[in-house]
Write a structure and sequence with these properties.
Length: 326
């Protein structure tokens, strides 16, 4: 039952309280409201009687900022619209300008929310989330491919390390080189593992932040992109961490095998070289003492008689040679 001027006054006070709740800072001395968005906006308390009119729509503005749906988005829209609405106003005349144009201010709030919803519709958000999931999947696939390539080098390193080692020979020049090479390989793969973990941590953080960003924009958790693609990326990222750790542990296997073979391995048998060694010793002894190793068999033998027929038959001294007649 109050007169219109009193009701308008209460509407102005209510509108001031709504704006004060959204302010980022309030000056304790002057009571000035401060907003820090695109530009710094200040609103000093005070208005004139001429600013009180029947068009103060405090109820519409209050319902906009108090709505629980997309509350953070509504607060951002409020600050952006307020900064643009008071762009050419000083802090003294700022609140008077809002009172005189409160209906226009409320309409801009609704328009800003409609534009935001149009740009962040569920379909468009799903497309953006799908593109983000694909990009993160490509980065994760590159890391996993690198892990697979490096893991294939472990069996090769193991074979190369064990192939030339002298088992049971202890510290030799060749065994020492092989131990150093295997240790260097294990250390290198450990550094690679730490580098891969750093990349996986960055990827996991990016994945979580991207998921939270789309949830804050209004994409529901039941959406297939968040419910399937992002969860699959999380599982693959966790599996990649386990694979990297397994690769790091397996990369020290060549060193352990070499050390075991050097100190606890069974020496190679020398039987294969015995015949050649005996033949070389026999040849050396034969050259130094030929009589000890005759070329003919020993023991009693009978002389071999060889009868050669005479080339010309034997004749007497008085034999004559008759020349055949022609």
């Amino acid at each position: 039952n109050a007169i219109p001027e009193v009701r308008h006054y209460h509407d102005a006070i209510r509108l001031w309280g709504i704006i004060a709740k959204q302010a980022e800072h309030i000056d304790d001395t002057t009571g000035t409201l401060m907003f820090f968005g695109i530009r710094r906006t200040e609103i000093a308390p005070g208005f004139a009687v001429e600013d009180l009119n029947a068009g103060i729509v405090a109820e519409a503005i209050d319902s906009f900022v108090s709505e629980s749906d997309r509350k953070a988005t509504r607060e951002q829209i409020f600050a952006s619209v307020l900064s643009d609405f008071l762009r050419d106003q000083g802090k003294v005349a700022a609140f008077s300008s809002i009172l005189r144009g409160s209906d226009r201010f409320a309409r801009r709030l609704k328009e800003g929310l409609a534009i935001y919803l149009a740009e962040h519709s569920p379909e468009k958000l799903a497309e953006e989330a799908n593109a983000a999931a694909l990009s993160l999947s490509e980065k994760l696939e590159a890391i996993i491919s690198g892990l697979e390539t490096k893991s294939l080098a472990i069996p090769v390193a193991l074979l190369l390390a064990v192939k030339d080692v002298a088992p049971g020979a202890g510290v030799t020049a060749l065994n020492t080189i092989l131990v150093i090479a295997a240790a260097t390989y294990g250390l290198t793969m450990t550094l690679v593992h730490r580098s891969q973990l750093a990349l996986l941590d960055v990827l996991r953080t990016t994945l979580l932040n991207t998921e939270k960003e789309f949830e804050s924009k209004g994409l529901d958790n039941s959406n297939p992109v968040l419910n399937t693609s992002f969860k699959s990326l999380k599982r693959r990222s966790a599996a990649a961490r386990v694979g990297s750790f397994s690769m790091c542990v397996a990369s020290w296997a060549p060193l352990l095998c070499v050390i075991w073979a050097v100190w606890f391995g069974t020496p190679k048998p020398a039987a294969a070289e015995a015949p050649q060694t005996q033949m070389r010793a026999t040849q050396t002894n034969r050259n130094s003492s030929p009589a000890a190793y005759p070329l003919t068999p020993q023991g009693p033998t009978e002389p071999i008689r060889i009868t050669v027929p005479p080339l010309f038959p034997e004749t007497s001294d008085d034999a004559t040679v008759t020349k055949p007649s022609s």
